[in-house]
Amino acid sequence: MHGFFLTLSRAMAWLGGLVLLALILLTCVSVTGRALSGLSPGIGPVRGDFELIEAGIAFCIFAFLPLCQITGGHATVEIFTTRWSGAANRWRQMLTDVTFAAVLIVIAIQLAAGMESKLRSGQTTFLLEFPLWWAYGASLAGACVAAMVATYIAMLRLAELALRRPLLPATTDPEA
Amino acid sequence: MSDLAIGLLSFPALLGLIFLRVPIGLAMFLAGFAGLVLVSGDAGLPLARLKSETFTTFSSYSLSIIPMFLLMGQFASLGGMSQALFNAAAAWLGHRRGGVAMAAVGACAGFGAICGSSLATAATMGRVALPELRRHGYSGGFSTATLAAGGTLGILIPPSVVLVIYAILTEQNIAKLFLAAVIPGVLAALGYMLAISLYVRLNPGTVAARPPLPLAARFAALGAVWPVLLVFALVVGGIYRGWFTPTEGAAVGALGTAVIAWANGGLTLTSLTQSFMVTARSTAMIFFIVLGAAFYNGFLALTQVPQEVAAYVAGLGLGPLVILLVILLFYLLLGCLMDSLSMILLTIPIFWPVVQGLDFGFVSMADLHAARAAEALTQGLALAPDVLAGIKGALAEGGELTRDQLRALEIRGASPGALARINGEQVAIWFGILVLIVVEVGLITPPVGMNLFIINTMDRETPISDTYRAVVYFVLSDLLRVALLVAFPLITLVFIPI
Amino acid sequence: AQEVTLKLHQFLPAQANVPKDILDVWADNIERDSGGRIAIARYPSMQLGGAPTELMDQAIDGVADVIWTAVGYTPGRFPSTEVFELPFLVSDASAASYAFWNLYESDMQEEFRDVRILATWVHGPGVIHASDPVLAPADMEGMKIRGASRQVNALLETLGATPVGMPVPAIPEALSKGVIDGTTIPWEVTESLKISELVEYHTEFTGPMLYTLTFVLAMNKEAYQALPDDLKQVVDDNSGLDFSVFAGRVQQDADAPARQIALDAGNEVVTLDAAQSAEWARMAQPVYDDWLADMQGRGIDGQALIDKARALMDEFSAAH
Ligand code: NA
Ligand code: NA
Hints:
The complex is a heterotrimer.
Chain A: H1 2-35, H2 49-70, H3 86-121, H4 132-163
Chain B: H1 3-19, H2 24-40, H3 44-58, H4 65-78, H5 81-93, H6 99-112, H7 118-135, H8 140-151, H9 153-156, H10 161-170, H11 174-202, H12 215-223, H13 226-241, H14 246-263, H15 269-302, H16 305-316, H17 320-335, H18 340-356, H19 365-377, H20 385-396, H21 403-408, H22 416-441, H23 450-458, H24 464-487, H25 490-493
Chain C: E1 4-9, H1 17-33, E2 38-43, H2 55-61, E3 66-70, H3 93-108, E4 116-122, E5 126-130, E6 144-146, H4 150-158, E7 162-164, H5 171-176, E8 182-186, H6 187-193, E9 201-205, E10 214-219, H7 221-225, H8 229-237, H9 241-253, H10 255-264, E11 268-272, H11 274-283, H12 285-297, H13 302-319
Parallel strand pairs in C: 1-2, 1-3, 6-7, 6-8, 9-11
Antiparallel strand pairs in C: 3-10, 4-10, 5-8, 5-9
Helix pairs in contact in C: 1-9, 3-9, 3-13, 6-10
The structure holds sodium ion (NA) (2 copies).
């Protein structure tokens, strides 16, 4: 079970990384094209590079969220809770992760609503005039996986509370 | 309860959540959501905002620079740059007392020139330098403290993620901020080396020196790091010269370091995957905080808190320097408990309206005329000798030029409005660099210092309390530098054209 | 006493011309005429969050109660309004704003069905601001120009220039670095962007404008419905045709002081005569053809819109 969600999260992160790399290449091609635009009328910056980056980077971030979620990568402040008892910390952790799951579910649902509204209104981008809902749709895929992973983590935390023992590693390697 | 009261009360509520170890981004999100519900009467408003706000926050062209810089740092490490930098620094500094620690700081500075994040710099250089420091007999606490402090150079030396966020929040020019950070960043590295030499003198017995290397070997070690210099020059120089936008610069730098990594045989499928994973994790962490902050700051704006705070502070009649010092002190205190990015995102929307109104009078009309005239005189204008003499005379006396003299020099845009804009920009840049430093101090101040934690997890034998004790030297060096930069704004602004 | 607070959200700083001279006037009048029962809370500079492109959806979803936006921020959604953005069609902002409101009532209500439109207007003549003189259409060849709308970009491409997309605040930086050679914007905007300090040449046209942009002041439907009838009346009385014409006129009038700044700075302001301008207008014909084909694909009779817009603008000009 954990293996499945971890693999899924890593696969999403990989996909996001690949898209990020593609955006980097696209940007470099565009910069080169602009620099050489004087040489020939056919050479110039990539048309609509700006809006491709905007659409692509949103997908990357959403695709990166599941991995951050499952490896506990979100920044926290640990000072007052370190002296709490194990049971108190399990309750705290459970409440935090259940809330986080709820938030990510709400985010995914509202993003779907946003996509639906862009689909209905027919809004496009400025230069390339591709429908904006495509970009929303790609992002929604990442948001859904993030919501699923967060729900899985929340359920593990509830199980930890019932079993009174940890199921997930307490801290993860920051470079994992 | 009035909207303003709800807005003000949201601060303690938010801090409470954060200290209950709720992830910072989530805490801001929850505070913003609850605040919007309280202000508007139901959940319709925050839910409606969520339809587009997650997407528009994440689909930001300017913020896309962040994952690119992070990936660039990963590639640089794959290309062996971290090891090469350490070897080069050790070749030049290793024979001094505390030289290996100084070399670690020097390598951190070099790595900071191609990495936008403190945590990544600390983690990367920690892997390379921590074993070396321990091998040369440095104590555990001093080794971890050195690398935690060295890691902050990742942000202090451009490129810098925190400066990017500051630039976006305050609508300032990223290139100028990067340029302004260079001298303070170098001063930081020198200050840390001073702190090291002070430490080894006060704590004898910790250092074993080795004989100096011959010059040829030193230059050979330096020869291995030229790609770092090249990428740094291309990215920061290119952004500054306007060859490309900051985002484009980040893309060029990422591609450049990828090529170096590939050429050095460091880029394999496994290592690429690892780079993606690390970049993904940090990027998601940063952007979730950005999202939470956007949500929370939108709520604050609705309650008019930033406007009221700015009006209140303006009404106090305090001098600009007093206001500045109070804000910096506030950051130093908050930095003991919070991380740098969250602090910037949380506080700049409140403080910026206050700071924006401060006038330190850095540039006078005469300065502006002198700068513009110097530029114009290099253009080889055909001026009548008496006109030229008049202009030179006025400039020599440090006075303003007349309207006719300005016309003759074909100078435009030397109006009082332009002067006010230039002064505003100078204050914004100076304040940005000062804030950058004080929030970065937070990364190494106990009890909560992310860099201390990161390095400490790499050295299981050293208790964090040892690290806390040794890091004091570096924190003192930081405070000294802040005082220096407050007293002499020119250190920061010398390269910023007016 | 105060009964309702309406949140007015828009993207410009509070001291810019449109917020100061148009939106504040509207809001102050409503507050006064409602005897203080309506308060308008003003949020400039996107203070309530989101990007300018989201303003229309914010009004639809109720994130803000009233928004002011450029219709071009949401390409593809309100295609009929583009008729006013066609190059060399509009000669006067008041006349075009008059035509825009009338055409809104007769032909565009369906496109704006999710929101209540309070006013419709256009800005003054779009001007070319460039680092090199621009006289003939051929001068544009190879220049990198920041275009203001889809139609302007289409025209720039037709002329052999490279349209570069960027948000308005990025223009000064891009000009000073030579990332772009020029920009198209109305005079009024050049003041806050200090354009006259960055370029030396400005090209104006005689007769129809190079281009203009369409703006709407829009209100959330539920927020309007929730008002008691007498307050609805207050909003209605301060909105609609008269206010639209007022807004167009005020925005066009704001051009003159900014133009004077460029003249004072010693810049060269070239006003192409009628014959030269007509030459440019001829070059714009492909843009019209493409637009008509595009509208046909959407089931809209573009030529009818053009004819109606022209007739309404003539009607207004004849009466004034
Ligand atoms: Na850096
Ligand atoms: Na700290």
